[in-house]
Structure formats: C-alpha cells, structure tokens
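> example.struct
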C-alpha cells in the first residue's frame, strides 16, 4: 500500500529496532499495511527469519477530513482540540472514533495470540499502541497522552490465560 516512506532517520531507527529484536524468539511479524510500517516490519522479519503478515487492524487511525493536514493547519480547529482532549468521546470528522480503533486492535491482538504459540511482533502506529495499552491498564481513552509511545519503540503486552498485562512500555532503541 502506498504511503509515507521511512526517512533516513526512520530507516536508522528501524534497523536499530530489528537489531535489538534479533535475539528474541519472534514467531510472527504483523504490520499495518502502510508503507513505513511495512518497511520497518520487513527488517524485523528478516532478523527473525519469518515473513511480514499485513494486518488491516493495525492500520493508523482514519483521520477522515484531517488526513494529510499538518498539526499547524489543525491548530485553530476546535474539533481537533476536542479530539485530543476527549479521545473517549470524540470522532475525527469523517473518520474513526478512538473506541473503535481500540476495539479493532484488541480484537486483533487476542485473535493473533490464538493463532500463534510464540511471540508476535506487531508493527503499528503510536495511537494504536496507546489504545491497546489503555485497554490493558484500564486507562480511559481521554488519558492516552499521559504516557509516551515513541517511534520505533518497543511496548510488550503479554497474555496469559486470557489476561493481558503490560510487560514493557516505550523501550527506545538507538
């Protein structure tokens, strides 16, 4: 799927991430079908000796009317401010609600764990990860910006006996 490509800095981060994960026993690599996430996932999959499985459930939030607009362009939009303050109630105009994003990610997470017996690397976007972590921790979606999820960082969620827990949040690679 076409989209934004990794910048030189993004490529270096993706390579560092793949190197960091090379020693892990990763059974599967799933990724948002956007180009930059597929590029990152390809590096991780090569190091793990498996292939990338594109997963629509991991795709970025559908920002609807805001798609392609910069933060500067949105700075005076009251709907943008409401969206960022009230992720639990707000919806991107013509796009997705954060609760729907969270539901699709969590459903995918549990389905993937059911299909695989080992570790799964999921390459997705910061807000998708925030939504998943908020679900596991029971944090309201209005508070997803209270924790950081940096590009090319590692957040680990483990599921045992159907119970998820956050093992690690936002490990940065360099």
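> example.seq
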């Amino acid at each position: 799927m076409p989209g934004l490509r990794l910048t030189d800095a993004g490529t270096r981060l993706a390579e560092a991430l793949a190197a960091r994960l090379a020693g892990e026993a990763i059974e599967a690599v799933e990724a948002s079908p956007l180009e930059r996430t597929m590029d990152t996932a390809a590096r991780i999959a090569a190091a793990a000796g498996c292939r990338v499985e594109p997963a629509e459930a991991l795709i970025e939030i559908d920002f609807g009317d805001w798609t392609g607009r910069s933060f500067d362009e949105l700075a005076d939009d009251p709907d943008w401010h409401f969206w960022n303050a009230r992720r639990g109630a707000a919806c991107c105009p013509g796009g997705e609600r954060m609760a729907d994003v969270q539901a699709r990610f969590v459903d995918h997470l549990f389905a993937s764990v059911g299909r695989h017996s080992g570790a799964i690397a999921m390459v997705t976007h910061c807000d998708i990860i925030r939504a998943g972590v908020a679900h596991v921790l029971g944090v309201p979606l209005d508070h997803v910006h209270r924790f950081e999820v940096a590009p090319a960082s590692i957040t680990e969620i483990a599921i045992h006996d159907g119970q998820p827990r956050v093992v690690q949040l936002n490990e940065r690679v360099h």
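> remarks
The radius of gyration is 16 Å.
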